[in-house]
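Please, structure for the following, as tokens.
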Amino acid sequence: MSRHVHWNPTASRLETDLFTLPAQPVDTSLAAAEGMREAAPSLREAIYQAIREAGERGLTAGELDALGYPGSTARPRLRELEGSAPWAKGRLRARIVKTPQQRNGMRIYIAL
């Protein structure tokens, strides 16, 4: 029986670019990020459109989950849309803002 391996010695040497998704330098995380490479831009746009269409009411992460965007998918896209994602710093402009208001204990995002 083989054991799960987390350390990938080449991962620490990877350069981050706009097309490198957020991942921990371990094989499973890198594989998951690679699997999202093609889907991330369209997911980011779909999430932005949903927030934009919500207008001033905005959307919470929980509401995005109810629309079919689970947290593990939505959270990185929200950071990209906020312009605060370390993996895309300076490459994506802020298109949404996380407001101080909350609904059901979750912060509300609105489009800029």
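DSSP finds four helices and three strands in the chain. The helical segments are 27-36, 40-53, 61-66, 71-82.
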